[in-house]
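Here's my example:
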Amino acid sequence: MKRTTMVATCAAALLGTVLTGCSDSTSGEAYGPAASSASPSTAATVDTKSAGTLGSILVDDKGNTLYLFLADTKNKSNCTGACAKAWPPFLTKGTAKVGNGVDKKLLGTTTRSGGDEQVTYNGHPLYYYVNDKKPGQTNGQALNQFGAEWYVLNTKGDKVEG
């Protein structure tokens, strides 16, 4: 009987962690790439970084990987609620900035349902992945979550399937 209680307690704690969207358990604040997106105070910058076999991919100014969601339509995010907790949108305040290797003509923004401005590239709304804990990680590459697949983008704004 004690084992059942312990398993239930552990399951409840794990569920609580998932539902809070990977936050610091003492302060409730987001960490990693999600913290960068939570409430932007300046214009976001899209840059590029070499990611081994994936080639040159889009990242933010800190080197955190950016992703596209195949369920999105041109300049419209279809990732909200639990999806947006696991895949925080890459938000900006003002016009997004162009970094090295980024095509200014492909960079834009779209307004999310809550009024936030999300950065787009070649019409794809951009996101972080909460399980990328440090710059350069691509743990979200080719995952199938929330009804569609997620991919990193190359400098042409196309998904990378590597």
Q: What stands out?
A: The CA atoms of residues 46 and 60 lie 5 Å apart.
